[in-house]
Design a protein that fits this description.
Elements (H helix, E strand, L loop, with lengths): L11 E6 L6 H9 L7 E7 L8 E5 L2 E5 L1 H4 L2 E5 L1
Antiparallel strand pairs: 1-2, 1-5, 2-3, 3-4
Length: 79
């Protein structure tokens, strides 16, 4: 399941990231923020309009905003 479809406020573990579908600079930024295999994350907010963009995720003690297209590249499993 991708991060985009994961339940709100539930803990998840990143099992894979499809770096090939992300632009190189976007991938570097996400890696620098700790988005990588094995990291624990949780979706804590979704945008209110039709696309539900952006998503706010908690990773460690940090909250970051992701585009939905980035969340679709991140495969997670329940933690």
């Amino acid at each position: 399941m991708t991060l985009d479809g994961f339940e709100h406020e539930k803990a998840a573990r990143i099992v894979a990231v499809d770096w090939a579908i992300l632009a190189e600079d976007e991938g570097k930024r996400l890696k620098a923020l700790g988005v990588d295999e094995g990291a624990e994350v949780a979706v804590i907010h979704r945008g209110i309009f039709g696309t539900r963009d952006p998503l706010a995720i908690r990773i460690g003690r940090m909250t970051i905003a992701l585009r939905r297209s980035h969340a679709l590249a991140i495969e997670v499993e329940p933690a």
